[in-house]
Amino acid sequence: MPKNIKVKYISKIAHKVHEPARTPEETQAKKFARTPQLPRGMKDLLPYETPWWDLLYGRVASLARSYGFDKIETPVVEETALFVRSIGKDTDIVEKEMYPIADAEGEKLVLRPENTASIVRAYINHGMLNLPQPVKLWYWGPMFRHERPQSGRYRQFHQLGFEILGDESPIVDAELILIAYNLFKNLEISVSIQINSIGCVQCRPAYHQSLIAYYRTVRHEMCEQCRKRLQKNPLRALDCKEPQCQPLKKEAPHFVDYLCEPCKEHFMSVLEYLDELGLPYFLNHSLVRGLDYYNRTVFELYVSGEEEGSQSALGGGGRYDGLSEILGGRPTPACGFAQGCERVIAKIKEIGSVKLSEPVFHVFVAQLGNQAKSKALKLFENLRAADINVAHNLSKNGLRPQLEIANKLGVRYSLVIGQKEVQDETIIIRDMESGVQEIIGFNKAVSDLKKKLGLS
Ligand code: HAM
Prior knowledge:
Blueprint: H1 3-18, H2 24-31, H3 50-66, E1 70-71, E2 77-79, H4 80-87, H5 92-97, E3 99-101, E4 109-111, H6 116-125, E5 135-144, E6 156-165, H7 170-186, E7 191-197, H8 204-217, H9 224-229, H10 235-238, H11 246-251, H12 261-277, E8 281-283, E9 295-303, E10 315-319, H13 323-326, E11 334-340, H14 341-351, E12 363-367, H15 370-385, E13 390-392, H16 399-409, E14 413-417, H17 419-424, E15 426-431, E16 437-441, H18 445-452
Parallel strand pairs: 1-5, 7-8, 12-13, 12-14
Antiparallel strand pairs: 2-4, 3-4, 5-6, 6-11, 7-9, 9-10, 10-11, 14-15, 15-16
Helix pairs in contact: 7-12
The structure holds histidyl-adenosine monophosphate.
């Protein structure tokens, strides 16, 4: 080793040895120097956003009730095998988007990337086959996909979903599409429905062959991923998002031309039901969806006029008649859909026709002095328990700022408790419109206000 390098090395070590030890304060300061940041692709739901989420949840819950669905909640952590077997190992989600969980007991677990597989697992685990069929379930919750974050695409996002298990009839597909459509109608979002049929195990091999034969002729124009997947899972080429693969899809053979008789009949019936319901749908021959468990009907919903680019689907779903058996259950035909809550809420806000309802307060409780604060809290509690919409702000001290808040809230009456009122066991009622004040006994406050507000 040349001499000068050796010296440099020694001096580096020497510097380390002589570095003074950190004081506990310095160690502490270093530990807290940087505030941990929100992980990429994740979102905080801040207080100004949560009312929109509550609004959507309320509309979905009420729609679900009216169509006879029961709510189900499954854990966000599931066995990795659940998704590998159901979504398929040659899909984007399984190949590159799952979040593995380090489990001390060596179990292979992931954060769920979607919920349909979990619903079918729960259906099998809890013997729901023994319930009257079909079983109609809805859910709402966070999903996790390690995708490249961009507008409308997050790593933690939320889905609302509806699933009907135990009925193969095409009316089920039509009812689900109707529900998905009605949710948007209810939110005043105009959507279009894209629909296709991707057949069953009987008719798929012939279509696969024809698809492979077509794609071989344009192999040099395909992206590398599609070329790799072509033999194993040719349908994935139709689901590819790469720009170079888009024109190739347009020339690809159509699945509807290869459907076996039962699949053709099923699809025709779904379309007839949609016609009868007057739902606006479009046949999209390259719609295959990005998950392997689908068969027969598949569909997606887009904001009208924004159909180009499947990155922006507000929701999607389809039939998955074989999934129960893939997961070790009995044959159970099923169909469902899910919508992305972030995308739906962004659209509601963008369109602006649905308004949030502001909270309505009738009474404001104001206080002056420490003793009055505790009396005011008691009074607030009594009014609240009597179902009177009452507001307060115990952090403010002066009367003026409190009455300003009362004014902003538009309350009819303010109730004031000061030192004197505490001693006399009274309160002052101030009519916020006329400014007229009167004094009443503390214990009479609830009944008096109920009368004044016409609540008794
Ligand atoms: P999916 O198409 O993968 O289907 O997701 C459904 C919806 O979730 C999408 O249309 C989109 O609105 C939203 N979504 C998906 N990924 C993201 C993301 N990274 N960020 C924001 N939103 C996203 C399913 O998950 C199936 N389980 C649907 C289903 C239910 N099929 C039958 N039943």
